[in-house]
Model the fold of this input.
Amino acid sequence: MTLSLVAQAVLSGVTNGVIYALIGMGLAVIFKGSRAINAAQGEFSLIGAVASVFAMKAAGFSYPAAFAVGALAGAATGVLIDLLLVRPMIRRRAQEDAFLLLTIGIAFAISAAVLFFAGRDYFTLPSIGSDGVAILFDATIRYHAIWVIVITALIVIALRAFYRKTNIGLSMMAASIDADGASTTGINVDLMRTATYGMGGLLGALAGLLVAPLVPISFYMGLVFTLKGFCAAMIGGLTNPMGAIVGGLMLGLLESLAIVFIASAYKDVVALTVLIVIMILVPHGILGRAGRAGG
Amino acid sequence: MNRRVLFAIAILVWAVLPMVLPRHFTDLLVFAAIYSVAGLGVGLLLGHCGIVTLAQSAFYAIGAYASAIVTVNLKLPMIVGVAAGLVTSGVIALALGWPVLRLRGYFLAVATLALAMIASALFFEWDWLTGGTIGLGGIPKLGAFGVVLDTPQSFYYAAWITAALSMILVHNLVSGRTGLAMRSMRDAIDAARVLAIDIHSLRVQMFVLCAMLGSLSGSLFAHYTGYVSVASFSIDKAILFLLIPVIGGAGSIAGIIVGALFITFVPEVLSKIGDFHGIVFGLALVIVVIAAPHGIVGTVERWWHNRRSGVSPTAEARR
Done:
């Protein structure tokens, strides 16, 4: 076991970890805002990446414009899911398992739609910055991966500021903490939930856009993204979106250590086992507070 | 017309169908029977315990692999393969269900999804056992006393009789004390506790039964197709098995049959457009959950019942 191998594992673990963190934050934002687990969270990443690839290839957009198209596509999908599907369910006062079945159906339909309209291809986006690599402690890291880490850090800071400083962010928080109280102060709770789904979609799409240059994206990957993001969010505590950062980094590092010490084939097995164990033993996450719904 | 006559006509139609239908449709009906057994287990958990399980594809695979390995590699009789599948999946469901069923709601569903994904990764990696993507072939056709069921027409009867026996078993179970205990646990968990119902143990028992039905379904599948590989046991299968009770209706046997027919015939109808059925399945799930939460059969039953008893449908919906 050389030092450079460990350094390599740490670098790739951190890179994967921030992606998981982004997906996990999207899940946690939606959970906080609507008390529902969105099984279609990983599909937002799929939509973001595929929309952006098509904007570049078919419509001839520049990379930054295509990136924006992908991010908007994710946010728009989130908004549409709330307006068209979640709203009628809330009006009916549907149970928790109905919401779960709903988002499973959405995930399945989106994945199948990508397969039908875009095919079995793997979609990749160009790197941000250059294609080269940096050398750090004898290990290599792609410039794009460094950008991923920097951009994620910026997203996290922006998200925190959004929820703490802006009017709409504070209203979204209020609506999620106490819907009745929020509506007496004139907050449109339904609108805030729509905004929450849009935010979840945006975060999911950003994760897809950032990961696509590193790992080509295909139609079946949404579910794996969802589970990895869920694992990150669970480790950090589902009611605390910032906890997903810690959870994502831990999961990423654990996975890359599993690759070094066990075998790369068992990476997902290790991650999913950790997810189950965490849910049973540490249901509020290592940073989370009490208040999780569903036991 | 009384119920008995209706039932006799249904049996007659069922018996005549494979003789008049083209071979291809009989083949689809066989798959509907096989899938309905797995879907029955999922429906039992969903309809009576309020548990969403996505792990059924794993137990279905265990049954199929057990039948394949026992009959092909060990050259033992088929019944041993079926039994090996039932025992293996029962034991695994017990060992995993005991800790995992402490979870509730979303978290339980996600845990079963994680279990299914772990299982499919292991089936892929343990190719010394499962044959991986190459699979295991040459599984003997079902047969006994010199009769070999090697055509869809003959397998049709065996598959549907197995399905019917499983459905009678589950029907008796949910009509009795256990069923009452399950429904009280689903609808009023505190009341169930007060009545000394051991909630956790009951949930684990039902999970084990669901897994064994999945395994039986997998064994039928292995003996029908004669070939199994990891491609048959992906997450899509878990969602398919979940669709059966959700679309048809988890509360009744008729619902399970309608659901199983739906998932086998819809891809066939849509096959001309290409791989379109995935989208239809996803949307069907979404639409049923929003518009007909009791499934097709459950919704029709309620509508019929309300029409006859004069309750307006809106009053029912508000309930």
About this structure: The beta strands of chain B are 143-144, 147-148. Chain B touches chain A at residues 46, 50, 52, 54, 99-100, 102-107, 109-111, 113-115, 117-118, 121-122, 124-125, 235, 239, 242, 246, 274-279, 281-286, 289-290, 293, 317 (CB under 8 Å). Chain B has 15 helices and two strands. The two ends of chain B are 32 Å apart (CA to CA).
